[in-house]
Amino acid sequence: MADAEGIIESKEKDFGIGVPVETEGFYLKGMSHMDWGIKDRLRRMFNPKSGRTVMLAFDHGYIMGPTSGLERLDLNIVPLIPYADSLMCTKAALRNVVPPTSNKPICLRSSAGTTILNELNDEVVIDPEEAIRVNASTMAVMVSVGGQYEAKTIANLVKTADAGYRYGIPTMGVTAVGKELARDARYLSMASRVCAENGATIVKTYYCNEHFERVVNSCPVPIVVAGGKKLAEYDALTLCYKAISGGAAGLDMGRNVFQSESPKAMIQAINGVVHDNLNPDEAFELYNDVKSDLELK
Ligand code: 5RP
To answer: Main EC class of this protein (predicted)?
Structure first.
């Protein structure tokens, strides 16, 4: 029992009579009613000032092998880590390469893949204990809405999201795209909504040129946009700008960073778009300035 001596009698004013208790919401869409652990992990991933994230993706090897620009994660990726808000990778990349001193929130690739196109691994997801062991801030699961493996990949999402809510870890539903799946607003809004309604705390999907706002607005949770295949730097920054202007809460960029002529300059320019609302011209200027500075060193 606590020592009762020394407890000072409260005066009435100490109770804050008349001062309403603050009941603040949370700065990310649809997250106000989430548990403390989920919010804390989301806060680590999404900058509270801008409400957005620059996620550096280098999980490609789990289905593509040593992708161009990812031959040596220690040389290609580790120098970029300081410029990212969060890292999207496999548990192997974490254990093999990412320094535990990086202090970056991890979006852990939690579903398994195969190298055979359109053969998403059915009902294989990592044990949530593994996510806890590596201190993941989010578990990412691929979902193939409308694809051959829809039911099984949705089962993966539901299983992972349930475990995530049990342990306070958000789950990211990753909408798969394949040759047979369209990348238009109609498809992407359906796929994103299906992920959210099946438990995803965040959805990762693609940008589409027409009606992207509909994809964002019909999804009750934050949307993060994947970069996709390598584009010219200006075009990639334009895509980033349009996705953010359209309401995306962040970007998950891989090839357009690590395959860029100047990955360090590119990730800084993307940061400018995401957190400082730079337009494509301003961001491209920043890219060129940083690139030139780096070349002089
Ligand atoms: C690879 C992925 C990537 O995380 C995602 O697609 C982002 O990378 P990129 O910008 O290269 O598309 O899911 O399997």
So the answer is: lyase
